[in-house]
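Please decode residue identities from the backbone states below.
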């Protein structure tokens, strides 16, 4: 139940999927909201601190997720050959965009040479800093890749719902309950 099989996702993959999905949406909403905060707003410094801390934890979870996926079997995708190819390319694009958003966020936060405090538990050092226009360029990349990630994630969710409700595949069920998909 912990590991993937050719017919279903294991608990680790399912947990990392849903944790990532909820966190990405939450960070996007938080990021959008905090761009409208005024200087004297009590959340002006607190919201970015939360955004950065959660973002770093998500970066670690994403790297763990990629490693886990590399060493686990991938359940066979359902649908036509076109749909299976689109799903494969879509998953690659999701991972590339997640890493782009997370790394560009790191580059924004470390542009002045200071590390990132993660909930005051530990600090991630500024490994790359003081590049010309680092914060501005990384900020543009961060914003547009986050928008692209939200659009692609919405498409991913709609495709899953299409497979579930129209095609009557167990695509959604495989990402909710590993026990149900092992009976094939």
């Amino acid at each position: 139940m912990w590991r993937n099989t050719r017919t279903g996702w294991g608990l680790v993959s399912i947990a990392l999927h849903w944790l990532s999905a909820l966190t990405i949406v939450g960070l996007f909403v938080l990021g959008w909201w905090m761009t409208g905060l005024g200087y004297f707003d009590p959340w002006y410094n607190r919201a970015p601190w939360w955004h950065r801390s959660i973002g770093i934890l998500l970066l670690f979870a994403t790297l763990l997720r990629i490693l886990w996926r590399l060493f686990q079997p991938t359940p066979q995708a359902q649908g036509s050959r076109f749909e299976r190819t689109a799903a494969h390319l879509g998953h690659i694009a999701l991972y590339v965009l997640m890493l782009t958003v997370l790394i560009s966020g790191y580059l924004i936060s470390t542009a002045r040479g200071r590390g990132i405090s993660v909930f005051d538990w530990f600090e991630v050092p500024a490994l790359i800093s003081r590049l010309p226009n680092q914060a501005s360029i990384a900020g543009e990349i961060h914003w547009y890749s986050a928008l692209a990630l939200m659009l692609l994630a919405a498409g991913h969710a709609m495709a899953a719902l299409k497979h579930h409700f129209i095609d009557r595949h167990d695509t959604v069920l495989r990402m909710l309950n590993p026990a149900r998909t092992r009976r094939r």
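Observation: Residues 134-165 form the longest helix (32 residues).
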